[in-house]
Amino acid sequence: MNSVFRIYTFFALTLLLVTLAFGLLATWAFLYPEAYNRFLPFYQLRPFHVSAALFWIISGAVAGVWFYKKEEFPKIRVSELLANTFMITWMLTILSIFGCYAFKIFGGREYWEFPPILCLPLLTAWILLMVAYYIPWYKSSRPKPLYVWMWSTGIFFFFITFIEQNLWQIPWFRYSFLREVTVQWKSNGSMVGAWNQMIYGTALFLMVKISGDASIAKSPKAFFFYFLGLSNLMFNWGHHIYNVPTAQWIRDVAYIISMTEFLFLISIIQGFKSKLDEQRKFKHLITYRFLIAAEFWVFMNLLLALGMSIPAVNRYTHGTHITVAHAMGTTIGINTMILLGSFTYMLGIDNKTEYSKRVINVFYWISQYSLGIFWVTLIVAGIIKGYRTTVLQMDNFNEIMKPVFQAINILSYAGIGLIIGLGTISIIYLKEIIKKKQRILEYNNNIN
């Protein structure tokens, strides 16, 4: 790790801590607005939480791709200047975004609620990343395993969907509410598929390294599921726009494709587990556990996503806390677990002392049980709200939300558990990054 990359990984993990902290504060601000409105109102805390979560996922995914790609292109010199410029520009822009939120300066759209001018440095940074990544990719004559194709696909499609997400800044899109909303929901749905390609590719890389079986990433079955995931990226967004007037065939195609969602990762993990011997599993036990946690949450979210994709069911669930449960289950249960597994491997946590690994294991299980309570509570809150809104046809928001608030109270306690579990693991990993810097400095001093 060079110094800029160490700072970048430190920054990415810090974003996870920020996500957890602002998520809990936003929950309390929603429940007790009279206590928070003077200082940290919900409308200010929510963008902090959402943006931190979004940038944690993207930044963590890029950290893995950049760290592991050197193993795939070992003999090709990569421009450190391009990579470092990307990382510095990316981090400074995110800090500027949080600065805008702190001073209540908004102006963007859903999930990207900062002033749109800040999209320019983000786009510039991403272009630098693409150049730094694709040049060695193009020069390499080695057959590329599946995870390299997944990284490449994710990086390219994030670029496309990011531009698409900003089309609202063109007056022709903005002048029609339906046109703008449709493009917004479509692009955000596809963007999830883009970073999933990077994250799932990283999961596949870890499985290959842990098992020692490269065939996992080269078999025809693996590539079949890759194209299945790619079709989800390109067309699965249709179920995001069920409530927008659109052609029926778009809804039908999206419904059929959404039935295959997550099957790729389930299939690959199952194949990985069947080929993994006990010795290798215990050698990388912490990394392995994070991957298995992701498998569990893939399965749970698959069940929820399939139900939500049925138009008759979506009528009741859309805009309720069930949608939030799906988002949180994916963001925390799948993406964050894989990314923490990636950071575990990068930082060599599996080689720590048995005591250190037992400590991590305790907080790992705290995070899993807390997430389970968190997820189920959101679903219950969504069912209550959907029933009272659609079946009882209640239109008074305060009346609708009375029983929902009780469920969200339970959710806030589960949020504390998540902060304790995931937050402590993050802090342990942050300390490890600092130690690596100190070891490098000591090594350089000894040489001099």
Task: Give an overview of the whole structure.
- With 448 residues, the protein is mainly alpha-helical.
- It has a domain at 315-442.
- Helices cover 81% and strands 0% of the residues.
- It has helices at 3-31, 33-36, 42-72, 80-102, 119-139, 146-165, 171-174, 177-211, 220-235, 248-258, 263-275, 278-283, 285-309, 311-317, 321-347, 354-391, 397-447.
- Helix 11 (263-275) packs antiparallel against helix 13 (285-309) and helix 16 (354-391) packs antiparallel against helix 17 (397-447).
- It is globular and about 65 Å long.
Write the layout of secondary structure elements.
Layout: H1 3-31, H2 33-36, H3 42-72, H4 80-102, H5 119-139, H6 146-165, H7 171-174, H8 177-211, H9 220-235, H10 248-258, H11 263-275, H12 278-283, H13 285-309, H14 311-317, H15 321-347, H16 354-391, H17 397-447
Helix pairs in contact: 1-3, 1-4, 1-17, 3-4, 3-8, 3-15, 4-5, 5-6, 6-8, 8-9, 8-11, 8-15, 9-11, 11-13, 13-15, 15-16, 15-17, 16-17
Distance from N terminus to C terminus (CA atoms, Å) equals 20 Å
Alpha plus pi helix count: 17
Radius of gyration: 22 Å
Which consecutive residue ranges, at least 5 long each, have pLDDT under 50? 440-448
Helix/strand-derived class?
mainly alpha
Topology, number of strands: 0
Average pLDDT rating: 85
Strand content: under 5%
Order of helices and strands: HHHHHHHHHHHHHHHHH
Main beta sheet strand tally, sense and closure: none
> Could you estimate the helical fraction of the residues in percent?
over 70%
Shape: globular
